[in-house]
């Protein structure tokens, strides 16, 4: 049967944690998705508060070119 | 795009619940069929019941499809995966929405998942999204049929008709690009997945052509 209650699935996830590549890699992918959202949120917030690309890049630990390449040219500010 | 009626939205909501019940992290046409059956009150559900299909039989059939490998088996949700790393997804969702507002979070999700220059840091989906609706071809065909038949709003009957048309129509090339393939790979339907509603109706002994003709006849009767 393809059915499974959510508690069963939780047990699978907990029991195999990161030992099982299938679960471990999926967990990492989920984490990366979360990081990308949080990064976009924080960069947008910093730009709205008047931070320069240089300052944002220093905090993120990347070059200013990198953060500019990734985030400049986007329609920043859903508020505007 | 023709608007969906309240019952149709409820059907899609129930389809999401059915998908979660099977541990599927996407909503496909096969789940829409289950959603129609679970709603039960619509003409579409009666059309299926007349043909001897009930919710339990449909669930059992979908389980058999999972055994055959046409739909994936259960897999942990993003919240459970992150929980195994010790991260509370709901807490993050709550705190970010409190700090930045729901609108800003929605915008950030769109930014993270949309195609950007040279694909820097682009992800197919994020844990903060709902499970993706992989039945958009069916919903699109439903609204096409609504226009053809002159119905102003897409109800459960038209959704079911859309699913039937989806079985009969090959998916267009725009549904086979790297972006869609990446999304499919991340939520787990097998390679070359084109919706499992056809095999599901086949197992239940319903002929899609005949069901489609009956639905068109019923819809045509309601419209002057």
Describe it.
The complex is a heterodimer of chains A (80) and B (224). With 80 residues, chain A is mainly alpha-helical. Chain A is 69% helix and 0% strand. Chain A contains four helices and no strands. The longest helix of chain A is centred in the middle third of the chain and has 28 residues, at 21-48. Chain A is elongated and about 45 Å long. The N and C termini of chain A lie far apart (51 Å). The mean pLDDT of chain A is 77. Chain B has 224 residues and is mostly helical. Chain B is built from twelve helices and no strands. The mean pLDDT of chain B is 87. Chains A and B meet through α1 and α2 of A and α4, α5, α6 and α7 of B.
What topology emerges from the helices and strands here?
The complex is a heterodimer of chains A (80) and B (224).
Chain A: H1 6-16, H2 21-48, H3 53-60, H4 64-71
Chain B: H1 6-21, H2 29-39, H3 43-50, H4 55-68, H5 78-84, H6 89-100, H7 102-113, H8 136-149, H9 156-168, H10 178-187, H11 197-203, H12 208-222
Helix pairs in contact in B: 1-2, 2-3, 2-4, 2-9, 4-11, 6-7, 8-9, 9-12
Overview features:
heterodimer; A: 80 residues; mainly alpha; elongated; B: 224 residues; globular
Provide a quick synopsis of the model.
Chain A has 80 residues and is an all-alpha fold. Chain A has helices at 6-16, 21-48, 53-60, 64-71. Helix content of chain A is 69%, strand content 0%.
